[in-house]
Design brief:
By secondary structure, the chain is of the alpha/beta class. It folds into two domains: about 90 residues, serine acetyltransferase, domain 1 (Orthogonal Bundle), CATH 1.10.3130.10; about 150 residues, Hexapeptide repeat proteins (UDP N-Acetylglucosamine Acyltransferase, domain 1, 3 Solenoid), CATH 2.160.10. About 40% of the residues lie in helices and about 10% in strands. It contains nine helices and 14 strands. The strands form three sheets. The chain has a five-stranded parallel β-sheet. Strands 3-6-9-12-14 form a five-stranded parallel β-sheet. The protein is globular and about 75 Å long.
């Protein structure tokens, strides 16, 4: 049964008062805001462009590919241009500018940013092909490139990262984070768009991986599940405000492998080229090239308990087994002799 109107009125007023008290947690009275669902559609179109035949239409013939890609790029140009425009206007509004004043400069720049992003797609795809190759070579459980492209969450996380990173480099606000956090919810891997990651990057299993905003990762790097590339602490300036724009996260040089649940922290921390970091290691200092980092194995204690023979009471045993397995419990007619007849 719905509450009466007089019961709802104070609840409405309480929520309105909450909106008035905290204007930073609502988007009322403002015009510009990118659409999360449109960002996801853009990513789905890009998956079709990067991996044709795997996503979207799976019945593509060679003679149809050009038309299919042309339609996808045309749609992307319009959708992405609109979302970039909304993101740029959102940024202006966030800086307390009038909506009308922000509209003209936003529109003049957005189409050019969308086209510049599309121009970068061939190079992004070349890098993604190298990422797929690294996954295939790095995982003996992978049976084919098809399996990696269709099923591996690590590749999806890396693909979305490479898209978001290009938008980040172009100075587009908000959209990169919407995209990367969508991938986070789908794959369990949280890769900030601001991180710099080289080619042939492979995340095995993906779940729980965190790559912070200012991380620098070289080529041929492999991360296992649960790896964190994070900050030691959040730097603060005068008045306790968070200092932004400094390197807070580690540098991982070429050819490094980091095993499951390892944590590497700090902007001054460098994992040298060709090093291996073992599972569950906590690293806050630089590691020289070609090093092996591991925790001292804990003492393992194994107690072997003596096997115990348990005999069920006679009334639970088969009649032919009861006397032989439990003679002392069998009924007797002679106090000095067991009845075995």
């Amino acid at each position: 049964m719905a509450p009466a109107e007089d019961e709802l009125s104070p609840l409405v007023e309480a929520l309105l008062e909450s909106y008035r008290e905290s204007h930073r947690t609502h988007h009322i009275g403002r015009r510009a805001l990118p659409s999360r669902s449109e960002c996801v559609e853009i990513l789905q179109l890009l998956l079709q462009v990067f991996y044709p035949g795997y996503f979207g239409r799976q019945d593509l013939a060679p003679e149809d590919v050009g038309y299919h890609v042309g339609v996808a790029l045309s749609t992307l140009r319009e959708k992405l241009g609109r979302q970039i425009e909304l993101a740029m206007c959102w940024e202006e509004e966030r800086r307390h500018l009038e909506g009308q004043k922000a509209e003209a400069p936003c529109k003049s720049a957005c189409r050019g940013l969308a086209i510049e992003f599309l121009r970068r797609l061939p190079e992004v795809r070349r890098t993604l092909i190298a990422d797929v190759e690294a996954a295939f070579e790095g995982d003996p459980a992978a049976s084919s490139f098809d399996e990696i492209i269709l099923a591996y969450p690590g590749l999806l996380a890396v693909t979305v990262y490479r898209v978001a990173h290009e938008l980040h480099r172009l100075g587009v606000p908000l959209l990169p984070r919407i995209m990367s956090e969508w991938a986070h919810t789908k794959t369990g891997a949280d890769i900030h768009p601001g991180a710099a990651i080289g080619p042939r990057f492979f995340i095995d299993h993906a779940t729980g991986v965190v790559v912070g905003e200012t991380s620098h990762i070289g080529a041929d790097v492999k991360l296992y599940q649960g790896v964190t590339l994070g900050a030691v602490s959040v730097p603060r300036g005068p008045g306790g405000r968070v200092v932004r724009g400094t390197q807070r996260h580690p540098t991982v040089e070429d050819g490094v492998t980091i095993y499951a649940n390892a944590t590497v922290l700090g902007g001054a921390t460098v994992l040298g080229r060709g090093s291996t970091v073992g599972g569950s290691v906590f690293v806050t200092e630089t590691v020289p090239p070609n090093s092996r980092v591991a925790v001292k194995p804990p003492e393992l204690r194994v107690d072997v308990r003596a096997a115990r023979r348990e005999v069920a009471p006679p009334d639970l045993l088969a009649p032919s087994l009861a006397p032989s397995l439990a003679p002392s419990l069998a009924p007797t007619n002679d106090p000095g002799k067991d009845d075995v007849a």
